[in-house]
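Subject: complex prediction, re-run

Hi both,

The earlier run crashed halfway through, so I resubmitted it with identical inputs.
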Amino acid sequence: MVSLERAGSPNRFRSLIGLTPLSCGLFCTLLTNIPVSFLGGLVPPPLLALVPVYFWCLMRPDLMTPVVVLIIGFAEDVLSGGPPGVWTLSFVLTYALVARYRDSFAGLAGLAAIVGFAAAATFACTAAYVVVAALAFITPGAHSPPVGSSISELAMTVLFYAPAVLVVSWLHRRLVGASRGDV
Amino acid sequence: MANAWKIARKGNAQLPLVIVIALAVVLVLLGKAQGGLFDRARGHATDLLAPVLEKVRAPVAGFDRWMGSITEIFSVYQENLRLKDENARLRQWRNVAVVLQGRVGRYQQLLHAVPDPRMNAVLAKVIGRANRPFLQTMILDAGRDNHALPGEAVMDPRGMIGRIYLTGNRTSWVILLTDLNSRIPVTISPGNVQAIMAGDNSPMPALDMVSHTVTLHAGDQVTSSGDGGFLPAGLPVGTLVSDGSGRFRVALLSDPGASQDVEILNFSKPPETPPANAELPVEAAGLKPEAPPPAPAAAAKPQTQPQTQPQIQPQQPGQAKTAPLRPGAAPQPETAATQAQGETEGADR
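This time it finished cleanly. Structure:
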């Protein structure tokens, strides 16, 4: 009986640790979409949720699965208030790109790592822009979205990558990375 | 576990990825076709977040004011002079407006004009703002519990800010006039030019559907036209400015970035139902139906009154000009006048 309890607790613990990427992505989504403007709305908020998606797609793709990315993208769509499904599709396509060239992205370090993330973020913002432009194209009388605000969002996302990835990598070392062999 | 790790990294992981991409595409199409599903989820999420937003709002608003004050402190003297000058001019215009308002009121009384629809207003606080690439919005702390409904206009003390497009129980999302998806019918004065003001995420919305035969000028006033019955007519929106390429944009009077307290106008105009075809045109004018055609014997008798006689009745104020609309009808001037009067009174009520 005692041995069973001992065996059960680590399993539950490992399951919770396995949810860390999802929880982190959802928390970043929530943090980004708190509708509070620090600079009077001059610049859009960064896509913080893309950082854990990118990071764990490279480090632990078994934990950051496509379904997890779908959930994070859906949360971004619901909370951001934009056209439904845009960020979901954008995140999933970005995940597919990063997973396809995983070895190339994972080999980057230092400034090159930031450039690698910038490439992924550019792909995500471009995909979102194309989807919204396509929706505007099939809607009578609708204007195409301006490119400037998408570029601003991309710049903010890349700018916030370095501090955000520090937090994510700390979580990875403390929680996920420590149980690499078990989870 | 090591085998599972390799499997997850290699080929089998591609299958769910394809399915998930297909799901995401379906989500986009579903969102286009059934946006209400997402709106309800957003409404619930905002209702849950409302207490947090209200707590966060105060320090952030203080931070914004502090940041703004740093830049304004260097121009406070010139700003003060400018405001004094503007205040003096506005006082003169206020006197003119008061005189004209009284005159318009007297004219409306004389003409028994249909009064403007009554509007209730709900005062709400701005608890959040979002400036995203594909959405510019603000969140208010009034929702369905406060009788705020989608489509209602949101005003700050200077002019219209936008419209409510989503309501939760205690919160509402406002689509700003500058947003990509905002389109409202407007009137440009002088000239009573009708147009559609369309946001494109720039600070100054563009004008669509302007007739090519009209000439616009910078400084012309833009107000809501009320077309379609969704917004009240005459809400101040902005003034025209030239964008340098021969086209005009609207410089908004309101400042969504600085507004803290706004009004939600509850504009409930009863829908107009067109009369049935059988009722046109006599019944639609409020008159009795035409008498059946007389028998041949009666028709042979000479007529004692000309058919156009009712037109010589003097028009009294408040009587609708309905008598000339009855060519060939039996003359009943008193009845027609009484019915028209009753209709006008009904409209006044």
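Chain A touches chain B through 57 residues (CB under 8 Å).

- K.
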